[in-house]
Amino acid sequence: MEKTNNNPTPFLGRLKHKSVADCIGATPLVRLNHLPTALGIKAQVFPNLEYLNPGGSVKDRIVKPSSGNTGIAIALMAAIKGYKCIITLSEKMSLEKEQILKVLGARVIRTPAGVSIDSPDSIISVAKPHEYETAEELWYQTEGHIDSFISAGGTGGTVNEVLDQYGPDLWIKTSDADSFNYARRLVREEGILCGGSSGATIAALAQLVKSHRELNVEDKVIVGILADSLRNYLTKFANNGWMAEQGYSVV
Q: What residue segments make up the domains of the chain, in order of their start?
C-alpha cells in the first residue's frame, strides 16, 4: 500500500460536532518508519492510533471488562450525559487511571487483582462495535489492502470484540519486558506516545515476520492497534526506576 494522502490541500479538521462523543473513532492510521527498519522488517507497518480518541484509548468504542481504559470511556460519556458513574478498577492498575476517572467525576472502587472473570468482584459490561466500526475504518484507510492484523490483549476486551465472528489465525505470546521496551522505542524512535500493550503489538510483529517470512516483503501491509496512551503509565514502564524495580533492563 504505497499510496498515501498526498493531497496538497491542507487538512483543516472536521466540521463542528454536537459533543465530544461524536469525535470517537476514525482514528489515524500512520506508517512506522524507523522501528521496522531497525528490526529488519520490510513490510509496511501501519498502527492505528486509538489513543487519540477523546478518552485516550480504544475503549471509547466499547464497554467490556478491562484494565481501566473502559472505565475512562464510560466516565467520559457519563460526564457528557450528566449520569452518575461508579467504576470498579483492579488494585494492580496505575494511580493515573484512577485520577483520570475521578477528574471525570466517577466514583472509583478498587477490586482485588487476579480474580477470575466470573468472580463477584470482577468488572463486567457489554458492547460490540469493533466488527463493524473499526474494521470498516481500517479497510477504508488501507484502501482494501490488509495482509495481517495484530491486536494485543490486556484483559482481552478489545481482542474479543475484534475476533467475535472470526477466530485468530495465530496467537503469539510476548513477555512484559519485551512489550515495555518496544513501547519505549515507539515513543523514542517514532514519536508515538503509546501504552505498554502497544509494545506487545510490536513484539508480536517481530515474532510474526520471523515465523512467516512471506509477510516480510515490501508489498505486504500489516495493521496493528495501539490501544492507549503513555499518560496512563508515567509511573510504570515509562519510569526507569520502576523498570529497574521489576528487574527489566532498559534498552
A: 20-58+128-245
Cα separation, 219 vs 216, in Å, equals 9
Q: Three-state SS for 14?
A: coil
Q: Which residues contact 124 (CB under 8 A, 6 or more apart)?
A: 65, 117
According to CATH, what is the number of the domain 20-58+128-245? 3.40.50.1100
Coil, helix or strand at residue 204: helix
In DSSP terms, 49 is beta-bridged to: 226
Alpha helices in the chain (DSSP H): 35-38, 69-81, 95-103, 133-141, 157-162, 176-190, 196-211, 240-245
Residue among 50, 56, 103, 115 at smallest CA distance from 78: 103
**Max mean pLDDT range (6-10, 88-92, 121-125, 156-160):** 88-92
pTM for the predicted model, two decimal places: 0.73
141: nearest Cα among 215, 51, 46: 46
- Residue 98 near residue 108 (C-beta atoms within 8 A): yes
| Distance from C-alpha of 103 to C-alpha of 59, rounded to nearest angstrom | 18
